[in-house]
Amino acid sequence: MNPYDFDLFVIGGGSGGVRAARMAAQRGVRVALAEAHGVAGLGGTCVNAGCIPKKLYGYAAHYAAAQREAQGYGWEGVPARLNWATLKANRARELARLNGVYADLLRASGVALLEGWARLLDPHTVSLATLNADGSPGQRRFSAARILVATGAAPHLPHFKGREHALHSSDLFEIEPFPQRLLVVGGGYIACEFASIFHGLGAQVTQLYRGEQILRGFDDELRHFLAAELLKKGLDLRLQAGVLGLERHADGLHVALEDGNRLVVDAALYATGRRPNVQGLGLDELGVALGAQGEIVVDAQFQSSVPSVYALGDVTGPMQLTPVALAQAMRLVDRLYGSGHARPALDLDLVPTAVFTHPSLATVGLSEAQARQRYPRVRVYRSEFRALRHTLSASSERTLIKLIVNDADDRVLGLHMVGAEAGEIVQGFAVALQAGATKAQFDATLGIHPTVAEEFVTLRTPVGGG
């Protein structure tokens, strides 16, 4: 007799949790998944308050730019205006559809889908806080051979005067009315993307970042290039700048800056980092080891300090990307329940990623600085140009592409781009880097002409020495 209600109990319905639950159930494992927000929370941050809605709003901003650029191609007439209510309603309808798709996939796989806030009582027992039919609070208990925590991360607001007036990224999707004057504080993915998106939608945006340049951790040349492009488009980007406090007045939100100046805005977004979502899970009491930022400490097999408790995705550390959580989920399920084939180890040096600003930035592999730290000699190839589409559009936007090559074996170590559809282009080249492609193989590949992507296979002369 199996002493447990389930073989695997998954806490959290985000990308990693859903993938692990579904794949395990398809292999005959008895699986339950608990999501605090029920079906409406399935897909986690990515579907509900991150990747998907952010990209939809980004498309909306692109249509505004496309109308202006179309004039150079002979299109005339009064540009359309944004109906903010329509955009919000259409976004909400699409997210509800996706939530339903996730629910259908889980149920079809045999996963028991539970709604409620889960808390670990011991290494094999989960308590689920629920609502009874009459609306009163209730509790249910479940036992499981293994427990997987995949609760993701949540926005973190620092403590400062007027903190109660600050918004986090989820708030902006539903903000009413549309903020004509928006302050964005931060310099990472979320800050840069929302600043660019709302600027494209028509807001007057000021972005403040305390660091020397936005997007710390990316290739330095791309960081500076993108910042210059954003400034050129009219985004008020201020570096080495911070906020002392916020005060609400009749004419808006008054922002006291560290340099002594003041701003008046309609809303202030703080995108200053995310922290692992571990509050209320009972991890401390159970003895699950946590890191300095509250992340669950796991080994290479995603196992915590309590052997029956596993964790993956954003709740475990700094690489908070949906594809990373999905890959981790597949590797965990393969190890625990078998797969029939060997899945290669996840190479975190070759995780492709994109920042959906306007223009966008995408990268895979090592930055120039990282490559020079690891290898005695590297070659750098780069090209900066005005894309063909803008020869008639009147836009001054420029594109930058860059390759980093190990001189010893000719292997391409890094590939970077700032420009339109950078994510779409770099995704394809990520396969080549994963396969260990050399610069000679890039050179032997014919380009599709005329495209931006062909520039990566036509670079011939290294710059900057070895």
Q: What is the overall number of helices? A: 13
Low-confidence stretches: none
Gyration radius from CA atoms, angstroms: 24 Å
Strand portion: 25-35%
Query: Quick one: overall form?
Result: globular
What percent of residues adopt helix (DSSP H or I)?
25-40%
Largest sheet: 7 strands, mixed
User: Averaged pLDDT, please?
Assistant: 96
Tell me how many strands there are.
21
Distance between the termini: 66 Å
Category by helix and strand content: alpha/beta
How would you characterize this protein structure?
This protein is α/β, with parallel strands linked by helices. The protein contains 13 helices and 21 strands. Strands 1, 2, 3, 4, 5, 6 and 16 form a 7-stranded mixed β-sheet that branches. A 5-stranded antiparallel β-sheet has the order 17-18-21-20-19, sandwiched between helices. A 4-stranded parallel β-sheet has the order 10-9-8-14, covered by helices on one side. Strand 20 and strand 21 form a beta hairpin. The longest helix is centred in the N-terminal third of the chain and has 26 residues. The termini are far apart. The model has no long low-confidence stretch (mean pLDDT 96).
